[in-house]
UniProtKB/TrEMBL annotation:
Residue ranges crossing the lipid bilayer per the database entry: 12-31, 71-94, 114-135
Entry keyword annotation includes DNA-binding: no
Name used for this protein in its record: Sulfatase-like hydrolase/transferase
This protein's record includes keyword Cell membrane: yes
Length: 501
């Protein structure tokens, strides 16, 4: 090979290697700054299953990431181009670089050393691994079929639906109990929600500790864990032959809340602000018996642009639509499950709607408070309806908050807990105060008046039962291991059919 070509190829290789280092370093910094802690499972899931929705992400985030990659490229060029090469970009730049020529020259010579480049690449790989939780995955050991030993397939349980009560289920983006701390936030941002009264002759239940287990820490994982009683793990790398089937149908082998309700004659309706494609939400709803699914695609037909933020329809409008849909469903004289998912409190900055601004709310605290108040108004609308006497209402955060303007404050909380509230038409007393996300599947059914033999579905226990109260004191620690076990029985949930066992 010609000596000049050999030198050129080496320079290109150095440039690409340094560019990879800078892209990873700047990219990981951007992720940490915008989202905080991201799990390896979460990353794989969005890359493998939810890829169709990535293009529909907040345009502001996309532009921010593009700028970050631009900086990575610029720094790479500045470090790799010889000092004399800067003269071509103008006297001003050349003069500036000449002023710090010694330092720049040293950096230029250092980054041309293959050993230094190798160390930099290894360092950024470790940084990326720590950022996305990949290093934690290395520490997991094979626990055999732990998941299968503890999983109760809802399809095998003879459930009794007494009363056929309606269910209204509201997932509030990133809602934590800590927002109610007056000392931390100067006022109780969740006051309206916490002051909602119980139904006449009914109960108001708020579990003191709803904790977040492995495989439940982002929106679709929060939905899957509470409706199906199982964690959400990425499975495609383990079974490439099934990739097409897995992407087209979301955990088809699992029997979830909406499947059980559909089997007993319920109508399932889901409403949220973003595109249905994002994070596989629409695919999950279609796979699991939701009859109507409303997302940004639908709202754009009837709402002007000022009603839609970077992710989708503002919460105030979504909850107004939820009230209308509740009234329409009541008229149909068919039991129903109306599920809503809010978006305004989504990180990294949240979205303050024009309606909330006109009411005097300001900043991210105002976003949280306004959304909480709008949810409370939605609940009061339901309670004022005659059908409210036969409706169980469940409100909960979809997961703990990720990176947002007050995440440093939240991080100082001694024990972070997910907000939850159940309003039931009959008097009920919880047997436990600490619940996992998986417990919500049987617990919600029990709050609707259903009878559950042995009081367990999926990995969760009915929190109103003696079985839940009799769990061992270290159950939460055991559950982390069980839920993290990606066993053959868990992988079977992603197959087209799972036979009764």
């Amino acid at each position: 090979m010609d000596a000049k070509w050999e030198v050129a190829l080496k320079n290109v290789a150095r440039f690409l290697m340094l560019l990879a280092v800078m892209v990873m370093a700047f990219g990981c910094y951007w992720v940490r700054n915008k989202f905080g802690e991201i799990t390896w499972e979460q990353l794989l899931f969005h890359l493998q299953i939810a890829e169709d929705g990535l293009a529909d992400a907040d345009a502001g985030l996309v532009r921010s990431f593009a700028r970050q990659m631009g900086w990575a490229l610029l720094v790479t060029i500045l470090l790799m181009v010889p000092i004399r090469g800067y003269a071509s970009v103008g006297r001003g730049v050349a003069g500036c670089l000449a002023y710090c020529r010694v330092s720049v020259r040293k950096l230029y010579l250092i980054v041309r050393d293959w050993r230094v480049l190798g160390l930099m690449l290894a360092g950024t790989l470790l940084f990326a691994g720590e950022t996305f939780g990949a290093l934690d995955m290395l520490g997991r050991s094979d626990q055999g079929e732990l998941f299968g030993k503890h999983y109760v397939n809802p399809n095998t349980v003879e459930l009794q639906a007494h009363g056929r009560r309606n269910l209204v289920l509201v997932y509030v983006e990133s809602l934590e109990v800590a927002y109610a701390n007056e000392k931390t936030f100067d006022r109780n941002l969740l006051k309206d929600l916490q002051e909602l009264p119980p139904p006449v002759a009914g109960s108001r239940v708020a579990f003191s500790d709803m904790y977040q287990s492995v495989g439940t820490g982002w929106t679709i994982a929060g939905i899957v864990s509470t409706q199906c009683g199982v964690p959400l793990h990425s499975v495609l790398l383990g079974d490439g032959n099934k990739q097409g089937e897995m992407v087209s149908k979301f955990m088809p082998g699992a029997t979830c809340l909406s499947d059980l309700l559909k089997h007993h004659g319920y109508r399932n309706v889901f409403m949220h602000g973003p595109y249905n494609a994002f994070a596989g939400v629409g695919t999950f709803m279609r796979t699991h018996s939701y009859d109507e699914v409303y997302g940004r695609e639908f709202w754009q037909k009837g709402y002007a642009s000022q009603h839609i933020n970077g992710w989708g329809l503002y919460d105030a409008d979504l909850l107004n639509e939820g009230s209308k849909k509740f009234d329409d469903l009541v008229k149909k004289k068919q039991p129903f499950n109306l599920t809503l998912l809010t978006i305004d409190t989504h990180g990294p900055d949240g979205f303050l709607s024009p309606e909330c601004q006109s009411m005097g709310y300001r900043g991210f605290n105002g976003v949280v408070e306004c959304t909480a108040n709008k949810v409370a108004k939605f609940v009061r609308h339901i309670q004022a309806s005659p059908a409210g006497k036969n409706t169980t209402i469940v409100i909960m955060g979809d997961h703990l908050a990720m990176r947002n303007p007050v995440s440093d404050i939240l991080a100082k909380t001694e024990r972070r807990r997910i907000f939850n509230l159940l309003l039931t038409p009959e008097r009920m007393s919880p047997a436990i105060g600490s619940v996992s996300r998986f417990d919500m599947l049987p617990t919600m059914l029990a709050a609707m008046g259903w009878e559950i033999p042995k009081n367990k579905l999926g990995l969760g226990y009915n929190a109103f039962s003696l079985e839940a109260a009799s769990r061992s004191k270290d159950w939460q620690q055991q559950l982390e291991v069980i839920a993290g076990n990606k066993s053959p029985r868990y992988l079977a949930l992603w197959r087209e059919h799972v036979s009764k066992e």
